[in-house]
């Protein structure tokens, strides 16, 4: 049996590095994991006034997470944080209060950047946001991918061997984390 993992690529860009990394992870995942790669596109803005009758897109996103066995975040860094669309998706999924769709789900965090810092600030913000609304977060290995600008070919396939090695190590560790934290 494979564990179903919702893999949220935090960028809305159709050719974003986060989406390419998430798709590469789906190909590298061991047989124990099945990654469904999504983006926050189409999730309407969170507004607490709508909680009594949540929009259909909120309900669909929450149900997708609730049916999963874990969640993997792959995020770029925007202005030293996560993209607003990703934060909105987290806000939508974490409500109503006390009924977060992330509760009990093992979580992984991968940040990335074409620059030298690898999106470390974005990853740290997720590490601040998620406790209390999610399940256990994979602590080691930490992964902040830098220099990803030349890691993919024109078709979006991963071509950088050093990145492939790091992603393989991470997805294998995440698979063990998910297996360990299943109720």
Automatic annotation (TrEMBL):
Gene3D superfamilies: 3.40.50.360. InterPro entries: Flavoprotein-like_sf (IPR029039), FMN_Rdtase-like_dom (IPR005025), NAD(P)H-dep_reductase (IPR050712). It comes from the Bacteria. GO terms for molecular function: FMN binding; oxidoreductase activity. Residues 4-145 form the NADPH-dependent FMN reductase-like domain. SUPFAM superfamilies: Flavoproteins. One of its GO terms (cellular component) is cytosol. PANTHER family: CHROMATE REDUCTASE, NAD(P)H-DEPENDENT FMN REDUCTASE LOT6. This is ACP phosphodiesterase.
């Amino acid at each position: 049996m494979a564990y179903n993992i919702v893999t949220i690529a935090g960028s809305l860009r159709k050719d974003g590095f986060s989406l390419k990394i998430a798709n590469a992870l789906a190909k590298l995942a061991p047989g124990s994991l099945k990654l469904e790669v999504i983006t926050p596109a189409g999730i309407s803005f969170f507004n607490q006034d709508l909680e009594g009758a949540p929009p259909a897109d909120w309900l669909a996103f929450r149900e997708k997470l609730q049916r999963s066995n874990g969640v993997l975040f792959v995020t770029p860094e925007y202005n030293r944080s996560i993209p607003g669309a990703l934060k909105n998706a987290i806000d939508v999924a974490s409500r109503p209060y006390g009924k977060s769709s992330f509760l009990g789900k093992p979580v992984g965090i991968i940040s990335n950047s074409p620059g030298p810092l690898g999106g470390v600030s974005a990853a740290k913000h997720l590490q601040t946001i998620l406790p209390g609304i999610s399940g256990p977060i994979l602590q080691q290995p930490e992964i902040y991918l830098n220099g990803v600008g030349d890691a993919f070919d024109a078709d979006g396939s991963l071509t950088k061997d050093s990145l492939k090695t790091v992603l393989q190590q991470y997805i294998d560790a995440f698979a063990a984390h998910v297996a360990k934290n299943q109720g």
